[in-house]
Amino acid sequence: MDRADVVDQAFRDRVLAGDFPHGEAPSGPLEDTEAVEIFRAQCLSRNLDRQSRKMQAAGQGYYTIGSSGHEGMAAVAAAVRPKDMAFLHYRDGAFQAMRSSQVPGTNAARDMLLSFATSADDPISGGRHKVLGSKALAIPPQTSTIASHLPKAVGAAYSIGLAKRNPPEHKVLADDGIVLCSFGDASANHSTAQGAINAARWTSCQSVPLPLLFVCEDNGIGISTRTPTGWIAANFSNQPGLKYFDANGLDIYQTFRVAQDAANYVRTQRKPAFLHLSVVRLYGHAGSDLQHAYLPKDVFESWEADDPLLHSARLLIDKRVLTQDEVLRLYRDAETICAETAAEVVTRPRLETAEQVSASLIPSPRDCTPGNGPTPDARAAAFGADIGQIDSPQPMNRLINWALTDLMLDHPEIITMGEDIGRKGGVYGVTQKLIQRFGPSRVIDTLLDEQSILGLAIGAAHNGFIPMPEIQFLAYLHNAEDQIRGEAATLPFFSNGQFTNPMVVRIAGLGYQKGFGGHFHNDNSFAVLRDIPGLVVACPSRGDEAAMMLRECVRLAREEQRVVVFIEPIALYPMRDLLLEKDGGWMSRYPAPDQRIGLGEVGVEGDGPLAILTYGNGRYLSRQAAEDLSAEGIETRIIDLRWVAPLPQAGILSALAGAEKVLIVDECRATGSLSEALMAFLHENCDLAHARHAAQDCFIATGPAYAATMPSRESIRQAARALWENGREADPNGGPTRNR
How confident is residue 734, by pLDDT bands cut at 50, 70 and 90? Predict the structure, then answer.
């Protein structure tokens, strides 16, 4: 017999018999009418779980990870305000049901059942996934998340104080609001949870406002792995900068009182708190989970005997708020609502085509107040002595710095954050003087944790800011890539475009740093970014173009609500010369603030029949090789992709008009590189002979051999000459050719 049926029948029988689990007497500030609403939400959540299993059995439902045993979260919802943003654990159906009862015009049963059925009418995901979430309820959607939502909850809470001082145009959260995030006891062990809680404490200990309530729903088990007794309390009850609260989540009166105290502390003190809620897990992890395979029967039967709905019924009956018959009537009413609503929602249309599924990958543009550009006086004040050099050629790092300055002058909602970006001005000086120009509330020195940096950005974007986080080195991104992949880029998709977190992530990356850092500071692969749907990835190669591309990236984030990654080639930051020492051939003048390079617009130098298709450092080296090739009578055109995801397909084909052969020069490793995609694209879309010259599948060494595994001026010349003369690419290392 399904344990859901066992628990259901036991609830009915025990209420009729007056057989309730023991517990404290009802006490505290919870009023009778609100207590009934909490119980109603609990009954609804329980019957939604039961209905989801019936729908799955009938082939009409697709999700059975339920909230049964965690219904105490309805009391937590009652203790906070409906407009307090909530990032929820996947077992928080009761929280959403209770909040829905507080917001007119919402229908928790229908909304969640449409999600179970993956109906296109699902008001949060549009049929793409079963998610808790609602725009009207201030609940951004989460899927079966572990703890990856906690860093962005920290960011959202941090943004409340920023927005009070500097309100962005699209501000969402109230000045006196708080942010809530919930998670399980097993999730508390995850690095994202540990990092987020650490970041909150680190912030709190500096007396920076952070109104965030962590709620740990402790049911003592993570799928099949038991949590040691006392583990959560031992870990979180005595941490500096984090106020600890503890409640029995089976008791709605105690839970409401303690949650209200915790929320009031967070709201008035503007400091984070940790609410430890003891609950039970009913039915196993999900419908397919056979808990008797890994748990003794007496363990899960003891949880079932402690059914939170039985506790709520006892409390309400003891307080004479409801009778036994009224308790059962509320439960049966919820059952009827779920059954009747389910019968209707399974008839609603579902997504069918790839176009329908992918329609929400790219969010819709939003109206923004036009920026008129910074005034001459504002620029003069911000740039200071730099204004006198603005018309003289400069290297890339300085031009990016000036572009950031102009953008932050024009758009006060832009904030930057990262390791060492403020007082130090960044490892390579790219953010130098920005903290003096805009202050520490817009140029934020963070703790050394990439998950927290990106989480801060995502959360701030939820509140109307345009964050520009900096990841110090490309290799460091791997510590936190899921914050882009699993959180930032997926939000429009899972919310049907209703929630967005537009941002521009700046990353210093790629290879060719002479003798510094080895592979951890010279990471010649960004494959981890290229396969994320909807993400824009840009890579400039010269300073003036970097400035103009950065302006387009900000426009994409600000107006089109896109998530953009801007990869800045470290080796080109200080580059001044191209062919000869002190020729200044790779410096450029700062372009006027109104000039930008549009998404998909490629760069072309020359009109020779041999096209070299490249980006980043590859363009710089190809320019050098082109001089040598020209001396040999081989004329080239160099096509700089600039935008590496999505591929600028139309721009590439237009730039190849009149070319005869194409050499792809890719500084990234051959396997998983952009050159693989470009080879396939050329094969499918043009008849030109083409080959590629990529880096070896090897990490980068420290010392004189730093560039040995990557394309060079000479190896590009050899590859281009071999392709031009023989239709083949010569491998400078003596290995087999890698071409068509």
Answer: very low
Judged by phi (left if over 0) then psi (alpha if -120 to 50, else beta), residue 273 lies in beta
β-strands 179-184, 139-142: how paired? unpaired
pLDDT in tens, 507-529: 999 988 886 667 778 888 999 99
What stretch of H or E contains 452?
Answer: helix 450-462
Start-to-end CA distance of the chain, whole Å, equals 62
Q: What is the pLDDT of residues 110-167, one digit of tens each?
A: 999 999 999 999 999 999 988 899 999 999 998 766 899 999 999 999 999 999 999 9
Q: How far apart are CA 130 and CA 144, in angstroms?
A: 9
Both structure tokens of 219 = 């049911």
The length of the chain is 740
What backbone torsions phi and psi does residue 566 show, to the nearest 5 degrees? -115, 105
Q: Model confidence over 699-709: pLDDT tens digits? A: 988 888 888 89
Element (H, E) at 222: strand 221-222
Assessment of whether the complete model's pTM goes beyond 0.85: yes
Which residues is 604 bridged to in the sheet? 639
Residue 493: helix, strand or coil by DSSP? Answer: helix
Residue 160 and residue 440: Cα distance in Å, rounded?
15
Query: 154 with 459: CB under 8 angstroms?
Result: yes
- pLDDT, one tens digit per residue, over 222-260 is 988 999 999 999 999 999 999 999 999 999 999 999 999
> What is the rounded CA–CA span in Å between residue 585 and residue 481?
36
Residue 172 in tokens: 């969402």
Q: What is the DSSP string of 29-89?
A: S--HHHHHHHHHHHHHHHHHHHHHHHHHHTTS-------TT-TTHHHHHHHS-TTSEEE--
Distance CA 531, CA 340 (A): 42
pLDDT of residue 343: 96
Structure tokens at 345: 């929602």
Residue type, 398: R
Distance, CA of 115 to chain centre: 22
Token pair recorded at residue 319: 């307080």
What's the per-residue H, E or C state across 281-341?
Answer: CCCCCCCCCCHHHCCCHHHHHHHHHCCHHHHHHHHHHHCCCCCHHHHHHHHHHHHHHHHHH
Q: Which of 221, 262, 234, 229 is nearest to 91 (CA)?
A: 221
- Is residue 341 within 8 A of residue 109, CB to CB? The reply is yes
Tens digits of residue pLDDT in 50-86: 999 999 999 998 888 889 999 999 999 999 999 999 9
How far is it, in rounded angstroms, from Cα 613 to Cα 674? 11
Residue 129 and residue 494 in contact, taking contact as beta carbons nearer than 8 Å: yes
Q: pLDDT (tens digit, 9 = 90+) per residue, 101-120? A: 999 999 999 999 999 999 99
Q: What is the 3-state secondary structure (H, E, C) of 164-200?
A: HHCCCCCCCCCCCCCEEEEEECCHHHCHHHHHHHHHH
Alpha-carbon distance 664 to 711, whole Å? Answer: 11
DSSP string, 400-438: HHHHHHHHHHH-TTEEEEETT-SSS--TTSTTTTHHHHH
Instruction: Please give the structure tokens belonging to residue 670.
Output: 């051959």
Beta strand 661-669 pairing with 689-695:
parallel
With beta carbons less than 8 A apart as the criterion, state whether 501 and 463 touch.
no
